[in-house]
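FAQ: What does the model actually see?

It sees only this:
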Amino acid sequence: MLDVEVRRAVTQVQQGQDDLKEELVRQYLPFILKVTSQSCRRFVRLGEDDEVSIALMAFDEALNKYDCTQKTSFFSFAEAVIKRRLIDYYRKKGRENREIPWSALSQDEDGEESSYQIDKMTWGQAQRIHHESEIAYLRREEIFEYQKELQYFGISMRELAEISPKHLDARKTAYEIARTISGNERYRDHLYKTKTLPLKELEQEVRVSRKTLERQRRYIIALSIILLGKFYFLDEYLEALKG
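And it is asked to produce this:
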């Protein structure tokens, strides 16, 4: 299905055509399973693995929340949502497995420690380690994708650390400018077509000088990439810049 056809179908789903939603889920089940398998680093099966159920709900969420006016493809958006929900799942499971009750060390009637309880505790620890490993893997994958996006604009991760403003107020101002860019289709198009900021337009819209815009250009671009790319872990970095 061509991108324009996908956007049309998603629009119809958002208008209440539930039959079409079910058809899209069936049609793109291989895509859903592929993203899930890549995220889990193992083969997954429908009806057997909890991760597939999570991914199906995430695909449904993507159908409901995708903004058809944006340039980002639906499948890139859906993949990001699926990975985000899987990360949430792993984190939740990791927290649950940390909460091992004192009863795990209770004794049986003969005064011996319950091997069943100890096995349960060991299994919980193993699951926690597994989930933390999955999150670490997804974090590395996200950073790799971000590095590729930065390279498109001629920015390296090492350079990004060097150009980050020292003062929090300056970083917050850059974040607000990046938000302005991400929320404006013309600005987004200009950014990706020219690999530069729309300085003339921004100068009229934001409350900083052109000199400041030029000085923080690469940092603003780096923040814009995070906002436009739906990066889950890197979005946590932006929390300190909000408000």
